[in-house]
Automatic annotation (TrEMBL), chain A:
Residues 31-266 form the ABC transporter domain. It catalyses: glutathione(out) + ATP + H2O = glutathione(in) + ADP + phosphate + H(+). It is found in: Cell inner membrane. Belongs to the ABC transporter superfamily. Glutathione importer (TC 3.A.1.5.11) family. Residues 266-291 are annotated as: Disordered. This is Glutathione import ATP-binding protein GsiA. Part of the ABC transporter complex GsiABCD involved in glutathione import. Responsible for energy coupling to the transport system. It is a peripheral membrane protein. One of its GO terms (biological process) is peptide transport. Keywords: ATP-binding, Cell inner membrane, Cell membrane, Hydrolase, Membrane, Nucleotide-binding, Repeat, Translocase, Transport. It comes from Salipiger aestuarii. InterPro entries: AAA+_ATPase, ABC_transp_ATP-bind, ABC_transporter-like_ATP-bd, ABC_transporter-like_CS, Oligopep_ABC_C, P-loop_NTPase. PANTHER family: GLUTATHIONE IMPORT ATP-BINDING PROTEIN GSIA (PTHR43776:SF15), TRANSPORT ATP-BINDING PROTEIN (PTHR43776).
TrEMBL record, chain B:
Residues 7-254 form the ABC transporter domain. This is Peptide/nickel transport system ATP-binding protein. It holds the Pfam family ABC_tran. It is a peripheral membrane protein.
Length: 348, 325
């Protein structure tokens, strides 16, 4: 039996439809205070997020801290309960025909902190086999050992070790093996390589690419590092304060960042050119607090193209005229929005 | 003019349950007003170097050999009052986590003023006006109001600005910055880097900037020293390191940055992991991971080549032409 045998052939949705569709996803966290512990405000962590991921595709999600990328990931696998919105996995809606347990069989997650996500009292082998035990799969230990071998950890050396005996890179390999032990079709990687040293990060990225090809996996790859996201993704989704501001194929967005925020985020990348260093910061100040976010377009307080309409109306996510796959939520691209510079076909 | 910094054959060894040879025979010099990036991965000894420079290592468990001079002052001989005057006066530090480095129970104005009163002997009122001036210089909006804010009332970027104001309030000759932008968002990180660059010019101080991110090093520093396993493996101007890296480790780091790497191509990853530092190195520490290592690399310490003034590469094969990759 080879490693590939653990991947099921079932694909009830078929190749024609997206593997995951998320629509109108919303999560507000209450901020309680006072002696009675009443809700005083709400953190609008994720507000009306919609996207679809095709089978075998890798969607990269970027944004700054507090933009809701990690909350989106947790909502996707039901670690946080959503307030509103629909999650459809392989043609079946969560909560209707699809149970949480089935969803988690098909969608697994790898977190940033490789140490905090492993039980310190369980051996590596027990950790990797645990999920398969819970789901009642055959031969969890054998499965665990094959997967450990596949992610580059010799089972004979590592099976009986504990997490604290491993380096960060090795622990992240364990987490990847544990996610794969469930034979998932989608793996959500939430800053999975961010805590690793650069040289180790490259090794893990190579491993992730290999596993994707070998097991036909679909990735949702969350990171703050644009270079990494560009390398691994087919499409990039940009979030700002709980909303999607732009979503586009990677080459298209690398060539032209349509949303003013996306443009700022890209210009904040280090230049890597000593003769041509960055001279001016693209944005002033920090991102606003997601409690009571700005009205209308949430970016209008920091946007140099902002006009009255940006403050008043929420822009809709729509495809660009010349490229419908490149979607942006900005009044500048909607001739009917009433923005004075709208319909010029791009940023000045 | 005396050198701003002159470190000769520095070795730092921690003893305890396990011995760690954190720094092994490091020599490093800086002229007045220079900016140097110490580039390396976790465990390479960059933070230990900074802590040694401030005398912050636990004396009971640390053995330090070699010498460190800042503006001619022998740092290792400082004790008591002289050490207190040196820390924060001559040399000061900006830490990675301003939320942990600032005192949560005092206002930021109070904390800056305290440092100024200690080092410059000003009274409270004058010290507070210095604090206000510093908050202005680090571009904190409505500084007058922020003077009376507590650290928790500020955002991450603002806290790091306060940290910088605190470090610079006594006009140090040398600023040590330990990954000061790593915990910040991308759009805030570039603001802090540009601010540090401006203040460095304005105050004319020297800066040692510790980072694991080669892109950050390029933005902030004129010179770069690359550390691996407690040693400096390569040193040069930022241009030389970016355009003509000679050490295989530096070249691997540059490749791992993924700048302009085409999608889907296989990454030229450095295999393996850094060595455990439980004994002093007797051979090239990078040899087990090096794609071009020779048997000699595993037998003796690599010679240090100096292809130019203030340029060095600790690699046996540094003089050979670099094969196309």
């Amino acid at each position: 039996m080879s490693v590939t045998d653990v991947i099921p052939a079932a694909d009830p949705g078929g190749p024609a439809q997206p593997l995951i569709t998320v629509s109108g996803l919303r999560k507000y966290f209450p901020v309680r205070g006072g002696i009675l512990g009443r809700t005083q405000a709400q953190v609008q962590a994720v507000d009306g997020v919609s996207f679809a991921v095709a089978e075998g595709e890798t969607l990269g999600i970027v944004g700054e801290s507090g933009c809701g990328k990690s909350t989106t990931a947790k909502l996707l696998i039901g670690l946080t309960e959503r307030d509103a919105g629909e999650i459809v996995f392989d043609g079946e809606a969560l909560g209707e025909r699809l149970s949480l347990k089935d969803l988690r069989r098909g969608v697994q997650m790898v977190f940033q902190d490789s140490y905090a996500t492993l039980n310190p009292r369980m051996t590596i082998e027990a950790s990797v086999a645990f999920g398969a035990h819970v789901q009642g799969l055959d031969d969890p230990e054998g499965r665990a050992r094959r997967l450990m071998d596949r992610v580059g950890l010799d089972p004979a050396r590592f099976a009986h070790r504990y997490p604290h005996e491993l380096s960060g890179g090795q622990r992240q390999r364990v987490n990847i093996a544990r996610a794969l032990a469930m034979s998932p079709r989608v793996v959500v990687l939430d800053e999975a390589v961010s805590a690793l040293d650069k040289s180790v990060e490259a090794q893990v990225l190579n491993l992730l690419s290999d596993l994707r090809a070998e097991f036909g996996l679909t990735y949702i790859f969350i990171s703050h590092d644009l270079n990494v996201v560009r390398y691994i993704s087919d499409r990039i989704l940009v979030m700002y304060l709980g909303e999607v501001v732009e979503i586009a194929p990677v080459d298209s967005i690398w060539e032209e960042q349509a949303h003013p925020y996306t443009r700022s985020l890209f210009s904040a990348m280090p230049s890597m050119d000593p003769d041509n260093r960055t001279e001016k910061p693209p944005l002033a100040g920090d991102p606003p607090n997601p409690i009571n976010p700005p009205s209308g377009c949430r970016f209008h307080t920091r946007c140099r193209f902002a006009s009255a309409v940006c403050k008043a109306a929420v822009p809709k996510l729509a495809g660009l005229d010349r490229n419908a796959a490149h979607m942006v939520a900005c009044h500048l691209y909607d001739p009917a929005s009433g923005h004075p510079d709208a319909g010029q076909g791009g940023l000045a | 003019m005396t050198k701003l910094l002159d470190i000769q054959n520095l070795s730092v060894k921690f003893s305890g349950k396990r011995n760690v040879h954190a720094i092994n025979d490091v020599s490093l010099a800086m002229e007045q007003g220079e900016t140097l990036a110490l580039l390396g991965e976790s465990g390479s000894g960059k933070s230990v170097t900074l802590k040694a420079l401030l005398g912050l290592l636990p004396p009971k468990r640390t053995r330090i050999d070699g010498s460190m001079r800042v503006n001619g002052t022998d740092v290792l001989s400082l004790r008591g009052k002289a050490l207190r005057k040196y820390r924060g006066g001559e040399v000061s530090m900006v830490f990675q986590e301003p939320a942990l480095a600032l005192d949560p129970v005092y206002t930021v104005g109070h904390q800056i003023a305290e440092s100024v009163m200690r080092h410059k002997g000003l009274d409270k009122a004058n010290a507070m006006s210095v604090a206000l001036d510093m908050l202005d210089r680090v571009r904190i909006p409505s500084a007058n109001r922020r003077l009376h804010s507590y650290p928790h009332e500020l955002s991450g970027g603002m806290r790091q600005r306060v940290m910088i104001a605190l470090a610079l309030a006594c006009r140090p000759r040398l600023l040590l910055a330990d990954e000061p932008t790593t915990a910040l968002d991308a759009t805030v990180q570039i603001q802090i880097l540009l601010l540090l660059r401006e203040l460095q010019k304005e105050f004319g101080m020297g800066v040692i900037f510790v980072t694991h991110d080669i892109g950050v090093a390029v933005e902030i520093s004129e010179r770069v020293a690359v550390m691996y396993a407690g040693q400096i493996v390569e040193e040069g101007t930022t241009r030389e390191i970016i355009n003509d890296a000679r050490h295989p480790y530096t070249r691997g780091l540059l490749a791992a940055n993924l700048h302009d790497v085409a999608r889907g191509t296989r990454l030229n990853a450095i295999p393996g992991a850094p060595p455990a530092l439980d004994s002093a190195p007797g051979a090239c520490s990078f040899a087990p991971r090096c794609p071009i290592a020779l048997p000699a690399c595993r037998a003796v310490l690599p010679p240090v080549f100096a292809p130019g003034p203030r340029r060095r590469v600790a690699c046996l094969r540094a003089t050979e032409p670099i094969a196309a990759e």
